[in-house]
Amino acid sequence: DFKTTPILELPMSRRRLQTILPPYLMDQLGLAEDPIIREAAQSTQLLDQTFRANRLEKKESRPAKNFPVIQIFDANHAQTLPGQLVRSARQAPVDDPAVNEAWDGLQATLKFLQNTFRRNSLDDDGTRLRASVHFGERYMNAFWDGRQMVFGDGDGILFRGFTAAVDVIGHELGHGIIADEGQLAYVYEPGALNESLADVFGSMVKQFQLAQAAHEADWLIGDRLLTPNVRGKALRSLAAPGTAYDDPVLGKDPQPAHSRHFVRTREDNGGVHVNSGIPNHAFYLAATGIGGPTWEGAGPVWYDALRDPAVTPSTDFAQFARLTEIASVRRYGLESREWQAVREAWSRVGVESERYERPLPWPLRAAQG
After folding, report:
1. What is the DSSP letter of 7?
2. Positive or negative, the Cα torsion across 232, 188, 117, 147?
3. Cβ(220)–Cβ(226) under 8 Å?
């Protein structure tokens, strides 16, 4: 039988690089018949492995509490970061679309955090944001390395430049928020929850930018990355995990939408990109069940749960579900429509919240009688 490695046995100093394209997809691309795709995938994997080995966790110095400083660098297809500074505060757009897309995506994410959650940058203390574009040759990924965003230009056959999708930018910056608040270990269920929360942030940033209510959104992640050569619509779907793509080169989207199909594996840090489909779908169900703009309904509940002191490196799906129930009661009241929607969402994906892990706060217990 499959057994997960106990979280406490994993050294927390060795945090994983958090990329938008999962390792299993890169493995698939590394077998492509097209030599350009195959070589681009293999080169991307080698770079990702290098960053995983060398990554350092540290925060930027914190400037005064005003709108955070954004800086965009050009790596000029080299692998040295950050590269040459090409756009900074109060500078007008430049001739390079990738630079402007990165700038706009970072700014959109910061404005979303400020306007919806009153959060001042990723650490809520105004830390500056840096991003490097044109990283490597045909690098097919984007990632947050604990200090900055990094974007590749894609292979030009299957993937466009990775600055093109604001939800991808929101996703990767979401990892910065998660690291600051929750410290979820990047393995097995905590890691899948980590990836899911990043998708939640990415989806909300995209919906906020488009002024969409939950029922109007497409609930896709990375739909602007794929070229017309791909038989698919995005990297992931929160509304229907497992349906984002079905392509001869990429393979079929492997994400489950229900816990009965949980993928038990040691690959991809225990399936963090695959099994994130389960909590992803729970968030979609809660958001559409509550209705209205996601950042006014289910979004604050998930954000409150992430910030709950009860979140630990080993928090799993059931424990997080319980924290969202508690957060929904605090925000909307016991037996509220929102509380019911949150409970039903987790139930529909086969996750029963950990009822006895942590009781409701005493005023709420009293209200229950």
Report:
1. G
2. negative
3. no
What residue type is assigned to position 188 of the chain? Y
Asked if residue 93 has pLDDT above 60, the reply is yes
Q: Residue 81 carries which DSSP code? A: S
Neighbours of 75 (CB within 10 A): 20
Q: How far is CA 176 from the centre of its chain?
A: 10
Residue 172 designated active-site: yes
| Structure tokens, 170 | 């929101």
Q: Could you say which of 101, 273, 281, 325 is catalytic? A: 273
Contact 205, 167 (CB under 8 A): yes
Contact 290, 337 (CB under 8 A): yes
- 22 has pLDDT over 90: no
Tens digit of each residue's pLDDT (9 = 90 or more) over 35-79: 888 777 776 766 655 544 443 344 443 444 566 789 999 999 998
Q: Which of 101, 134, 171, 172 is catalytic?
A: 172
Amino acid at 234: A
Pairing state between β 220-221 and 236-237: antiparallel
Look up 281 and say whether it is catalytic: no
Q: What is the pTM of this model?
A: 0.84
pLDDT at 293 over 90: yes
Distance CA 334, CA 321 (A): 16
HSE-CB at 344 with a 13 A cutoff on CA atoms is 15
Question: What pLDDT, on a 0 to 100 scale, did the predictor assign at position 246?
Answer: 97
Structure tokens belonging to residue 136: 């490597």
**Residues with Cβ < 8 Å from 95, sequence gap 6 or more?**
none
Using CA atoms, how far apart are residues 55 and 16, in angstroms rounded to an integer? 8
Question: Helix, strand, coil proportions of the chain in percent (round to 5)?
Answer: 45, 10, 45
Asked whether the beta carbons of 271 and 253 are under 8 A apart, the reply is no
Q: Which residue, chain included where needed, has tokens 């105004």?
A: 126
- Cβ count near 339 (within 10 Å): 22
Strand intervals (E) in 204-306:
220-221, 236-237, 246-247, 251-252
Count CA atoms within 13 Å of residue 63 on its CB side: 12
Q: At what angle do helices 298-307 and 277-290 cross, to 10 degrees?
A: 130
Q: What is the pLDDT of residue 47?
A: 65
